[in-house]
Design a protein that fits this description.
The chain has seven helices and eleven strands. It is α/β, with parallel strands linked by helices.
């Protein structure tokens, strides 16, 4: 019987190794798998390359992972936002590496990784520092920059509902990068608010099919990043 459920966030992330590349879902707070990230902090893997839309807020979640000096490199679109305090300081001190990627390009690089497409051409970033050192080519009189696909060893994502096969439903915009990250990672780990029986999810509503999911942990009362930040919580 296929059953991808694991007992705890700690068990779900136990084999993430030093130097791993980890995709983490979330557009700011929306879809951020806080419990899985905190379990990864407790687990202690170091020198991670993390792919995310941003660099977290306050001193919890992704920001806490960075603050704990477990991330050697960030690949993201928004390294500095209103609530980001940790990453800018470490970056200015030369303690963390940054690869800045326009958001649409980031999404397509991840999607391409999951689809088996090694690279693609885009007009985004042409004539800017982000295009330096990259191959360019002209199509129909327009210059394009070649961008390579991104794949990862692990993906950490968050869903609203999951069954034991790993079929997922997300809550509105909390879906964001999660489905394509699930496709582009060797091991996809999901925290879900509700773990349901086979048949309880209408196949027509599945947003990420179970073929891309490896582990599921139920977190029925997930923490909210904005609330933790407002309360001044620091993790660990």
């Amino acid at each position: 019987m296929i059953d991808k459920k694991v007992s705890s966030p700690a068990a779900a992330v136990a084999d993430i190794f030093d130097g791993a590349t980890v995709m983490i879902g979330g557009f700011g707070e929306a879809g951020s798998p806080i419990e899985l990230i905190h379990a990864l902090i407790d687990q202690g893997a170091k020198n991670l390359t993390v792919i995310n839309n941003n660099t977290g807020s306050g001193h919890v979640g992704l920001a806490a992972l960075i603050e704990n000096k477990q991330v050697g490199k960030m690949i993201c679109s928004f390294p500095r936002t209103a609530g980001s305090m940790v990453f800018p300081e470490l970056y200015r001190a030369g303690q963390i590496e940054l690869e800045l990627v326009p958001q649409g390009t980031l999404a397509e690089r991840i999607r391409s990784g999951g689809a088996g497409i090694p690279a693609f051409y885009t007009p985004t970033s042409v004539g800017t520092p982000l295009a330096e050192g990259k191959e360019s080519r002209e199509f129909d009189g327009v210059t394009y920059v070649m961008e390579r696909a991104i794949k990862a060893d692990f993906a950490l994502i968050k869903s609203t509902k999951a069954d034991r096969y790993g079929n997922l439903i997300f809550n509105k915009t909390a879906r964001n990068f999660a489905p394509i990250m699930a496709m582009a990672a060797d091991i996809t780990i999901v925290q879900t608010k509700s773990y349901v029986e086979i048949g309880d999810i209408d196949p027509e509503t599945v947003m990420s099919p179970g073929i891309f999911i490896n582990r599921i942990v139920e977190v029925t009362n997930p923490q909210q990043e904005s609330k933790l930040v407002k309360e001044g919580v620091c993790y660990p």
